[in-house]
Amino acid sequence: MTLAEAQRRDAADPLRHFRTAFALPDSIVYLDGNSLGALPNRTAARLADTAAREWGDGLVRSWNSNDWIAAPRRVGDKIAPLIGAQPGEVIVADSTSVNTYKLLAAALAARPGRTVIVSEPGNFPTDVYMAQGLKLLRPDIELRLVPRADIDSALDDNVAVLLLTHVHYKTAEMFDMVGLTAKAHTAGAFTLWDLSHSAGAVCVDLNAANADLAVGCGYKYLNGGPGAPAFLFVAERHQAALHSPLTGWMGHAAPFGFADAYAPAPGIDRFLCGTPPILGLAALEEGVDLMRGADFDALLTKSRALSSYFIDLVETRCPLPLVSPRDAAERGSHISLRHEHGYPVMQALIERGIIGDFRAPDLLRFGFAPLYNSFEDVWHAVGALTDILDVGAWREDRYAVRTRVT
Ligand SMILES: *Cc1c(COP(=O)(O)O)cnc(C)c1O
Fold this sequence. Notes:
alpha/beta; 12 helices; about 35% helix; binds pyridoxal-5'-phosphate
């Protein structure tokens, strides 16, 4: 395994030209696009234009003249094909956390008599926290956290919704969306899939899986920028029967009718709450447009190839325990390795310009974004990791200093 081989693979990569569409510093190997995606070059200009021309000159007229009001639907429709949804089934709104709350509450209300949410222990914290918060309003709810091997048997006729993160944020293990959705349906429950680590990185086909509900992040593989608004999906067949618990005016059938009585908009629009964040939507639209310009099969193939290459190099050069599935078909686009001193090891890597992240208590996590990562990136990352471990460079005191965000 040589650098020349990595470079040969890059030269044969049909997506290689996308890297120059991002403002990535040359001195950095960025393997954290699963936490915060990189900045597309066009985004800065788009934001400047949205601020100066649309806001500065257009002022309030821009809700109509620049069609700000349609942005949540427009960008949702652009995300739809990336996750196997139809136009009108996806809308951009709020955060993933808030969308999870809205859809959990909607699913529970639509299954009267059923009070159980099934999820797994160790699911992404916000998913579990939002379910716990819902229980404050509805103390009758039971949050049943069961290990993934037992989910099947936990699906009884009391279950209203199965809430799972499709690709696990730590291990990258991927659930069988088709199989579990079918099992949930047999039990009469909805499925709510969190696609935060899936959208733009792995094959997601919500409609082929007959999925009911989904949420996901705009700022990870979709490159929408820090705190980008999130998306949510409600299958068309459910839209008329499901109701958001956050009945803000933007989800009203006629927001500018200013009636006292709430009446939900028909279709996916009812899952809006307040005024859409136009600057955030503009940045997200650039990220999504860029991804839509890429061949999706090539994207998925490259995601698997990069992470597999990383595993191969790690195993030959610095064998650390692999926490992610070895079989690329069973995982997302990131790889986690275990190291007792994972935090200082990651700090030492970051100081050398290799940016991944640390997930407590002992995981080194490396995300591979097929639009802008290269095989050479992977080569350099494993080289630096090998070096740091060989000489024990991570033992220096400064690497032990903990920051608020890891
Ligand atoms: C990143 C992530 C989130 C983030 O939710 P926010 O509301 O945007 O903070 C939610 N779920 C999963 C699985 C994630 O990985």
